[in-house]
Amino acid sequence: MWEYEKRLQYPVNIKRPDAKAAKIIISQYGGPDGELGASLRYLSQRFAMPNDRVAGLLTDIGTEELAHLEIIGAILYQLTSDLTPEQIIKEGFDTYFVDHTLGVYPQAASGVPYTAAFMQSKGDPIADLVEDMAAEQKARVTYDNILNLVDDPDIIDPIRYLREREIVHFQRFGEALGMVRDDLNSKNYYAYNPAFKKQ
Amino acid sequence: MMKNGEGALMRRITEVSFALDELRLFLDTHPDCTEALNAFAIKEEKREQLLDEYARKYGGVEGYRPGTENGWEWNAAPMPWKKEANG
Fold first, then answer.
1. Which pTM value belongs to this model?
2. What is the interface pTM, i.e. ipTM, of the complex?
């Protein structure tokens, strides 16, 4: 279970409304490499993870991703809450506004709604952890791309923080992969899924 | 708006909590690292002190410790994504 803490993991204090930035950053809310997909991926994969320490790591990183989802939501909210109708039209936010007004909705920057098809829970610890490492790199690249497209220091600051967390998570998942490898008998390493023992 | 000193205290809670978030993940894959374990214990104690002080002055941060001395204040202050809670 979870206990809510009434605070952001990293502060968000954006002074200038910016619909163009919101249209891009929303991809890290509900896009293919976004924080919603990250949290659901790890929190789903952990059930079939045979190594207890790695199942705990998936829980802890999945929990942190929920805090990151909240940070992205805060960025989107603060970027859009004071927009005028003129800004909404001029900055191309009208196509979002017509469906969601200023509500925060999980979708990619392209408009594709969040789908679990963005992620996998394969039930095999090697396959899942390798996917997790790739996912962290893909999210890191998305943050790099956002940093190339925005120039407001109030946006850049929390985005840089989130980018750095992807790198740390990648490192931890790499270590977890090593722990799972150590668990496996090297003789039948590629022949057997330790989460499905039919031998 | 935040009350006097509230922002500074919340910043210290954010900092010490982040140290714990980072140490927690590190210990998940380095459970035998005594240096990290000791650092966790120190930061854990510090966080408890700061959360107690914050709860006393401005209200509870944790869902299981919202504080009931002044009535139900848990959902009275602005939520953390509001600008007023980050200024």
1. 0.95
2. 0.96
